[in-house]
Structure to design on (634 residues):
């Protein structure tokens, strides 16, 4: 029996398959316009590997969780990220998930979620902020981190993504080096994330979501939090893994 | 006194239900009915009852009139204030439109400054509340305000507010309070006898009933029916539903956005801990007090709202409610830009967490723009309980 977790995020869709308690397969797709189509594509891709309704249970999560028609049930991404992170890290601490439109902090103790915080409708400190800024600078996320590591401190003080973009445009206009702007952008996200999770502080942190393989970002986060920030490539799938774990029955 | 029974210019543009609302109130006015609009638990209703004036709650709970309000009021203001003003500004609420007077209190800064602008559109009477209840002279100040209010209403409506009528009004209002409390207490059982949102909707409906006797009867009926149904084995709420106490700002504008979402995601509201809930309605007035006006004044001033400082009574009461209703989790709703409840939320959170109960604060307004995120947060909170 397979356990399948499907995490339809605002920008990326993830799937994780567990068999006998082991992670056997992961998938990553752009969510695109239709979460429903993406969910169907995921079903088809898994079907080709012999994973179907006949031999698998499905749980959907993420903001698009209701657009997965074949899911046995839906669970919120908070619970799933908590479960998935415990599966991956097996330690007490606080999960930081920087998602496409939400950033979440989840305090974990002995596998249980003690408390969580999530940004409100504002996109400050989320992946959306980074996406807008990298587009403005004509960079990819990887390039942004690479440049930021060479930059000198520049402060981007606007909380709002739209205003921050104007601030970046004026910096560009003034001829501020791209490295410095990149540095300011990453620091802005770090600062907002740290502020958000101040209510769920831990001795150590686990970074999940699309930035999990970004060593520079992890490093800056760790520097600001004055605590270790751990991650691993599978942490991108933490939500999907958590959903799969909940698909037991 | 000038009679006000004509319809607004925009009447023909209204949908049928709204037209009907206007016609009902128009008829009430044409038959000699007097109407006062109230905006707060601090309004001493007995004075208006004794003057033969019907009262109706005008707290704005809809996003619909906010764009209109924002032509005059700043955007970054509490949605309740904007919505209330917007209804007066746009002539869209029959109760606001036909009210002979609107009664306001100097509660929060946003409200008291809004009343200045509201007074350009409607006759408004403001009662000045003390900033706290603990000074020895606070009760005297408030008593003086109530006396002024009595005089103003006598003058406005050309009536005498007699002691006899005040005592009658106190008795009737006490009955309403007891009926409301017995409705709240339906939620004590596990599972509770009502959905919390059903109760919230019944409460909201009640504020639009001019006839107090009818309002009391409606609630008593509802309680009676729910009790009977429960005794007959009906269980409208699942026994596994997580028991939620909803505290914070007035919740009438977030019944759909927060209330329904809680109850559609495995929770049930067992205690409505806003100013229209048990905290306020368990405060009765001594019907046999020597000085009935004093007794009325004292009762209203003892209401706990975050505009008062200090306001420990609210926190202490919530602590009691958490135990009484065997609460699994506390959700606090703060309306955008409500500084007093937002700041006080820190004290609330500390008390709730010290009691070992999970707590979550939601800051929101009446718009639907954050519905998706709210749903995720509420559902996740209930999942963790």
């Amino acid at each position: 029996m397979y356990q399948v977790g499907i995490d339809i995020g605002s920008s990326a869709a993830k799937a994780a398959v567990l068999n006998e308690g082991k992670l056997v397969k992961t998938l990553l797709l752009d969510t695109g316009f239709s979460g429903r189509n993406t969910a169907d594509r995921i079903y088809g891709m898994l079907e080709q590997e012999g994973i179907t309704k006949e031999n698998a249970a499905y749980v959907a999560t993420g903001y698009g969780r209701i657009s997965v028609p074949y899911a046995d049930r839906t669970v919120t991404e908070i619970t799933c990220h908590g479960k998935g992170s415990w599966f991956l890290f097996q330690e007490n601490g606080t999960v930081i998930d920087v998602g496409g439109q939400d950033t979440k902090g989840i305090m974990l103790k002995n596998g249980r979620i003690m408390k969580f915080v999530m940004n409100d409708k504002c996109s400050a400190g989320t992946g959306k902020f980074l996406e807008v800024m990298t587009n403005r600078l004509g960079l990819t996320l990887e390039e942004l981190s690479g440049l930021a590591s060479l930059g000198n401190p520049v402060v981007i003080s606007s909380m709002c993504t739209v205003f921050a973009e104007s601030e970046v445009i004026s910096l560009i206009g003034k001829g501020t080096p791209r490295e410095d702007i990149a540095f300011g952008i990453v620091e802005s996200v770090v600062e907002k994330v740290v502020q958000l999770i101040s209510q769920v502080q831990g001795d150590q942190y686990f970074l999940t979501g699309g930035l999990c393989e970004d060593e520079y970002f992890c490093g800056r986060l760790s520097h600001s939090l004055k605590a270790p920030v751990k991650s691993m490539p599978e942490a991108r799938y933490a939500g999907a893994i958590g959903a799969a774990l909940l698909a037991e029955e | 006194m000038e009679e006000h029974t004509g319809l607004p210019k925009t009447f023909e543009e209204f949908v049928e239900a709204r037209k009907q609302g206007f016609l009902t109130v128009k008829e009430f006015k044409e038959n000699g009915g007097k109407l006062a609009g109230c905006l707060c638990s601090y309004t001493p209703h007995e004075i208006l009852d004794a003057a033969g004036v019907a009262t109706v709650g005008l707290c704005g709970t809809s996003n619909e009139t906010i764009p209109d309000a924002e032509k005059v009021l700043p955007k970054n203001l509490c949605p309740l204030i904007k919505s209330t003003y917007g209804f007066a500004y746009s002539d869209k609420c029959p109760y606001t439109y036909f009210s002979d007077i609107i009664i306001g209190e100097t509660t929060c800064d946003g409200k008291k400054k809004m009343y200045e602008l509201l007074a350009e559109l409607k006759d408004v009477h403001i009662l000045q509340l003390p900033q706290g209840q603990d000074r020895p002279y606070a009760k005297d100040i408030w008593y003086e305000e109530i006396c002024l209010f009595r005089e103003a209403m006598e003058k406005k409506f050309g009536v005498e507010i007699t002691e006899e009528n005040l005592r009658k009004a106190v008795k009737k209002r006490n009955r309403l309070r007891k009926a409301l409390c017995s409705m709240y207490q339906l939620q004590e059982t596990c599972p509770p006898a009502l959905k919390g949102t059903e109760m919230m909707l019944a409460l909201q409906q009640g504020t639009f009933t001019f006839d107090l006797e009818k309002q009391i009867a409606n609630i008593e009926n509802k309680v009676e029916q729910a009790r009977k149904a429960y005794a007959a084995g009906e269980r409208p709420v699942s026994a596994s539903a997580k028991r939620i106490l909803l505290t914070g700002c007035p919740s009438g504008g977030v019944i759909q956005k927060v209330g329904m979402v809680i109850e559609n995601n495995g929770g049930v509201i067992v205690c409505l801990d806003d100013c229209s809930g048990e905290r306020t309605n368990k405060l009765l007035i001594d019907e046999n007090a020597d000085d009935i006006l004093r007794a009325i004044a004292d009762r209203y001033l003892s209401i706990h709202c975050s505009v008062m400082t200090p306001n420990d009574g609210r926190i202490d009461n919530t602590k009691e409610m958490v135990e009484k209703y065997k609460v699994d989790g506390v959700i606090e709703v703060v309306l955008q830009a409500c500084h007093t409840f937002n700041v006080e939320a820190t004290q609330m959170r500390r008390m709730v967490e010290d009691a070992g109960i999970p707590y979550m604060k939601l800051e929101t307004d009446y718009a639907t723009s954050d519905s998706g995120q709210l749903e995720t947060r509420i559902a996740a909170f209930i999942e963790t309980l």
Notes: Chain B is about 50% helix and 10% strand. The CA atoms of residues 109 and 307 of chain B lie 9 Å apart. The radius of gyration of chain B is 21 Å.
